[in-house]
Design goal:
The protein is 5% helix and 40% strand. It is globular. The strands form 6 sheets. Strands 1-2-3-4 form a 4-stranded antiparallel β-sheet, with no helix packed on it. A 4-stranded antiparallel β-sheet has the order 8-9-10-13, with no helix packed on it. Strands 14-15-16-17 form a 4-stranded antiparallel β-sheet, with no helix packed on it. It folds into 2 domains: 34 residues; 314 residues, 5 Propeller (Tachylectin-2, Chain A), CATH 2.115.10.20. It starts with 13 loop residues before the first helix and ends in a 16-residue tail after the last strand. Strand 16 and strand 17 form a beta hairpin. It has 373 residues and is mostly beta strands. The longest helix has 20 residues.
Length: 373
């Protein structure tokens, strides 16, 4: 570090000492502002329903199914919200929560940003409705204004009188919402995948990836992975034909020109696909088997074919599920997921965590080292 001297051959004067102190202070402040995120995390990072959910004691809150969006140096972490009792034996999730951080160390509570009932077509109430896994992305519109797209799984699809889960999309001009449904009907419904699988929860866990060329792709599924390209507006499927009223709410849809692709090359695919790109290589991380482990595959194309690479996290004690979100922040790669390690935790009372992702020289991922303090 260069230190200013008034004269290299004379004693340092009080003025020079002041300059030295100012320089040191500035450098120290610069280091503080650019500090790398922690490698050992205070997991679970979301513990309390308080302004600082990591450190400020309060009522415990159970969160799951993380979705991460990074924008302008801020990490936005969206989660589902487990509200089941300790004795309960099924999912009870009604809303989606948001948390934010500038360093992955200190987190801020942003509150509930969406509920399953914000989709008018969703089925259920506060006793029967469920807000399952989701994904959030942002993109600037033609006027340079950021728009935020919230893709979520709720019960509302129907085929021949059978209800099941469907995927909807809502839009906002703020990461905190409010999000509104521009379609008035699901984006993916049971009839779209009826020829592949029969169980009613097959259309869950949406994840959207926007490639470098601006084209966007939706991945989803339980027991079967599907993908489809989205239209440029991100709220319709490519090739989807529809009629709308004057407010833009869709009255009908026709998907005969929509190409939905099934992927059958991923061993033990269970659910929770998540696509990202690192150093020119596409990574598809997903939950494998049941109880779930975390597996991944790689490809040179966003549409595959995918080459299976193996398991990077074994099943976790106390919960049968594990939902990944892999993201880059300040030059490093991280994995968000959930475990069941808060007091009273379990398969229906889970907790979001974050850990570092390390790559081998050939681009493969090293086994994830889970951390806590």
């Amino acid at each position: 570090m260069y230190l200013p001297f008034c004269n290299q051959f004379k004693l340092v004067t009080p003025l020079c000492l002041l300059a030295v102190l100012v320089s040191l202070s500035a450098c120290s402040q610069q280091r503080a502002n650019t500090a790398a995120p922690p490698v050992v995390f205070d997991n679970p990072i979301i513990k309390y329903d308080s302004p600082d959910p990591t450190r400020t004691p309060g009522d415990l809150i159970y969160t799951a199914d993380p979705a991460v969006m990074v924008k302008d140096g801020t990490v936005y972490l969206y989660s589902t919200h487990d509200e089941q009792t300790p004795e309960g034996q099924d999912y009870r999730m009604y809303d989606y929560r948001l948390w934010s951080s500038d360093d992955l160390e200190h987190w801020n509570k942003r509150g509930a940003v969406f509920t399953y009932s914000d989709f008018d077509w969703a089925r259920g109430d506060t006793k029967t409705g469920n807000a399952y896994a989701h994904h959030v992305i942002h993109r600037k519109d033609n006027h340079g204004k950021s728009q935020y797209y919230f893709y979520a799984t709720v019960e509302g699809g129907q085929v021949d009188g059978e209800f099941g889960f469907a995927i909807g999309v809502a839009v906002s001009d703020s990461p905190e919402g409010p999000f509104t449904d521009p379609r008035g009907m699901p984006l993916i419904r049971l009839e779209d995948t009826a020829q592949y699988k029969e169980h009613s929860w097959r259309n869950i866990d949406p994840a959207v990836f926007v490639d470098d060329d601006g084209r966007a792709y939706l991945y989803w599924g339980n027991k079967q992975l599907w993908w489809v390209e989205l239209d440029a507006d991100l709220v319709h499927l490519k090739g989807e034909q529809y009629e709308s009223d004057q407010q833009g709410t869709m009255l009908s849809r026709n998907t005969k020109n929509v190409e939905i692709h099934a992927v059958d090359t991923l061993p033990n695919f269970e659910e929770a696909p998540y696509v990202s790109k690192h150093n020119g290589l596409y990574y598809l991380v997903y939950a494998a088997g049941f109880p779930e482990s975390l597996a991944y595959a790689t490809s040179r194309s966003v549409t595959g074919p995918w080459e299976y690479q193996g398991i990077i996290m074994e099943p976790l004690a106390g919960t049968t599920t594990i939902h990944p979100a892999m993201f880059d922040f300040k030059g490093s790669t991280y994995l968000a997921y959930h475990n069941a390690e808060l007091p009273g935790g379990g398969s229906y009372r889970r907790s979001v965590c974050i850990d570092r992702v390390y790559f081998n020289d050939d681009g493969t991922i090293k086994p994830i080292v889970r951390t806590s303090r």
